[in-house]
Amino acid sequence: MTEILVGRLADVRDGAVVIVSAPDVEIGVFRRGEDFYAYENVCLHQGGPVCEGLVIPKVEDVIAPDRTLQGQRFVVDEMHFVCPWHGYEYKLETGECIGEPGKRLRKFNVVQREGALYVEI
Amino acid sequence: MNVMPTQFRDPSVEEFDTRTLLKQAARQAAKRHYEDFLIVDVDAHHYETESLADIVNYIEDPVLRETARAKGGVYAGAPTLMNNLPGFQDMGGRIGRYSKRMLEKVPAAPPHRDVHLTTRWMDALGVDIVCMFPTPMLLLGLHPNVEIETALAHAYNRWLTEVILPQEPRIKSMLYLPFNDPEATYRTVKQFGGKPGVIGFMVTSARYKAVYHNDYMKTYALLEEMGKPISFHAGYNWNDPSFFQITNRFISVHALGFTFHNMIHLTNWIVNGLPDRFPKLKTIWIESGLAWVPFLMQRLDNEYMMRTSECPSLKKKPSDYIREMYFTTQPMEMVDNRKALEVTFEMLNAETQLLYSSDYPHWDMDLPCVIYDLPFLNERAKLNILGQNAVRLFNLEPRLSPAKLAAQKLRRAKARSTV
């Protein structure tokens, strides 16, 4: 298994993303609290830099028991990241495409070792 | 365990730069060897409001000019001159370039900032020649004051043809027609039709004027005589009383609005026999996508066969006229519809009538790969749609960009060095 070095844990701020480039692959590494998620930085749509856009919670319609619409809310337990080219949204935890749940980004395993972060490719 | 060396970037501390945003587009262009052929982008945009302080100086009415200048600053005149509508093109900040592009740094030296910004994205996408349009002015046809639309159109057209177009031969335009004033429309064609870089004229479709009105016939005749096409650029009107006031999400307004107005104008154009009155006048339908075209062809043919007496000028079916018109590709509908898309291309005679467009920097822009990667197109059809149809239509000089010529030179040098 080959690893690529991301950097020190402190180099990736909570709520942010860093981009690491190795030959033939570019990977976005997100941090949320003590969890890290890594995806290939290529959107399924037209190949944009999918990891370099906004990180934002899922939006949900608030439907009351009588089935009337009461507004919208952010679901902070489900974070999404958005491709800055066209707005394709993906689940932060899984890389699943929101518009097409069967499709997802190529995901990589993140390893922490001696205060440093690595991605297995 | 092998550990490979890497490069590290933190996007949050980077300054906004179009070339960084589009670096993956540049990789696509290199991988597909776009440097070997011409790409013409028939619909892209700049933000003329960023230059409004300069543009208002070209307003000829002294009272309106001073009223516009009174606001001052970079948005001089905007509240007076521009027609603002609600809309969420940036998707609540999800498309970051809408707000960040104003911060993008360009060299202080000429050419104009708009030329710097435009050629940056052109080179990233692999576009050699662009037809550039304004952005907020796309809704100017809805301005309640016709005199203001006409004054701003004239000022913008003067600024564009005197300042911007002369600075970069790769940038062309189809100039804005103040269509709510037929006489001013005619004067615009007469005054600007021969200017360098002017490849046609454009009507913003979001307006309520009948294209078949007799007041426009002398303009169409003049366009035909000059050999300049007329285009209809889609837009929307969320205040439209017919049904847009009952749409509550921008997706609905955008999806329907950007086809709605063009459907009406195209239908009016055909049923009133304008293609036969002006057989050499080319019409271009811009930024409505393509899915509406088979619908309109089928719908109008079906109705026409039963109501021929209402269209006595027609010598053939509506779809036969539509097949001779031109359409820009963006935003090309591409979700789970490969068969439908292929049929659409056949129906509208895409190989000769379709014109690639990006609509960059807008949120639903399309890269050239949307055409280049289509498996049902042969090489000739791809090159036609990506550039040769536009060369023929606009009589363009098919010149590759300096970036592409440099890429070719580098490739030849590498090939020689490996021999």
What does this entry look like structurally?
The complex is a heterodimer of chains A (121) and B (419). By secondary structure, chain A is an all-beta fold. Chain A has a single domain, classed as Rieske [2Fe-2S] iron-sulphur domain (Rieske Iron-sulfur Protein, 3-layer Sandwich). Chain A is built from no helices and 9 strands. Chain A has strands at residues 2-8, 17-22, 25-32, 35-40, 55-63, 69-82, 89-91, 107-113, 116-120. A 6-stranded antiparallel beta sheet of chain A has the order 1-9-8-4-3-2, with no helix packed on it. A 3-stranded antiparallel beta sheet of chain A has the order 5-6-7, with no helix packed on it. In chain A, a hairpin with a 5-residue loop joins strand 5 (55-63) and strand 6 (69-82). Chain A is globular. The model of chain A has no long low-confidence stretch (mean pLDDT 95). Chain B has one domain (33-417): TIM Barrel (Alpha-Beta Barrel), CATH 3.20.20.140. Chain B is globular and about 75 Å long. The model of chain B has no long low-confidence stretch (mean pLDDT 94). In chain B, 43% of the residues lie in helices and 10% in strands. Chain B has 419 residues and is α/β, with parallel strands linked by helices. Classes of the chains: A mainly beta (121), B alpha/beta (419). The A-B interface holds A 1-7, 11, 13, 16-23, 42, 46-49, 52-54, 56, 82, 84-87, 89, 118, 121 and B 1-12, 21, 23-25, 28, 91-97, 363-367, 369-370. Strand 1 of chain A pairs parallel with strand 1 (2-4) of chain B, so a sheet runs across the interface.
